[in-house]
Amino acid sequence: MKKWRENTRSKEEQRRDAGSGKRTRKKNQERRHYQGQEKKQNQTFENNSMGEELYPENGTTIKVTKNTFLDKESKYVKVVHFYRNDSKESQQIKGVLERLFRNDLYDTFKLSAVNCGEMEDRVFCSEVIDSEIGVALVVNRKVTIFPKEKILFNRMGDAILRDFIKANMPYDFLPEIKNTQDIRTKLQNKIDKTLVCTHLEKDDTQRHKLAVVYITAQEERSASLASIAHAYKDVITFGEM
Fold first, then answer.
1. CB 56: neighbour CB atoms within 10 A?
2. N or C: fewer beta carbons within 10 Å in the chain?
3. pLDDT tens digit string along 28-69?
4. Residues 6+ apart with CB under 8 A from 183
5. Are 111 and 97 in contact (CB under 8 A)?
């Protein structure tokens, strides 16, 4: 009996040791993964520390200046990245914004950038964001600044910027439709109004002839549709049900 207890205790200890070993290996793997990601980000920064341009002129990102920042002719939601080429935070923010543009918020906004390291734009950056690194959302010439205290290298994931952009989309152009009465009051009334379409000649006027109702089972408002509704606000009336 004594020998059996000793053998049993030994097996239990072996199982505990095996479980402890698995947890240790998992922690080591996670640590190596994090260290690898951090090393990769630091290496990217070191490669760029000599001043390589984050947003080359031949890229898809639109460079803006003080004169074009609040372009009244723009129909699009604009996310503006205020950056410095020698900033780790700027490098990280660029990666986040480009991932959001390609994936979660595909074609929802136009990505623009201002190089706050340039002498001619440094004052402009300080006037808008009171800093040289940051993000701003521009809709209908209204500017919303991303809180600069949330810009922390290696601690700012995609979700933080994604939620900021989605929360400040132009939902005013996408009224919620809950019943048939809403269709009459929120959509038909707008169709009856005479509006001048921006793409027509000065002497031409045209009434809204089309209303689009987007029906979805999702509880969350559609940022993509809000962007479309804003872009075509002079031509089509949108609603979301």
1. 10
2. N
3. 665 564 455 445 444 544 545 456 899 988 878 889 888 888
4. 177, 211, 213, 239
5. yes
Q: Which of 138, 154, 137, 155 is nearest to 146 (CA)?
A: 137
Number of alpha carbons in the 13 Å side-chain half-sphere of residue 25: 6
In the chain, which stretches have pLDDT less than 50?
4, 33-34, 37-38, 40-42, 44-45, 47, 49, 192-206
> Tokens for 26?
């998992």
Residues 96/53, Cβ–Cβ less than 8 Å: no
Backbone phi and psi for residue 20, each to the nearest 5 degrees, phi listed first = -65, -35
DSSP track, 56-104: -TTSSSEE--TTTTT-TT--S-EEEEEE-TT-HHHHHHHHHHHHHHHTT
What is the distance between the alpha carbons of residues 65 and 121, in angstroms, rounded to a whole number? 7
Q: State the Cα–Cα distance between residues 44 and 1, nearest whole angstrom.
A: 64
Residue 13 token pair:
């200890």
Measured CA to CA, the distance from residue 81 to residue 67 in angstroms comes to 16
Contact 199, 206 (CB under 8 A): no
Q: Which residues contact 47 (CB under 8 A, 6 or more apart)?
A: none
Backbone angles phi, psi at 211, to 5 degrees: -125, 135
State the DSSP code for 173. Answer: G
Single pTM value for the model: 0.68
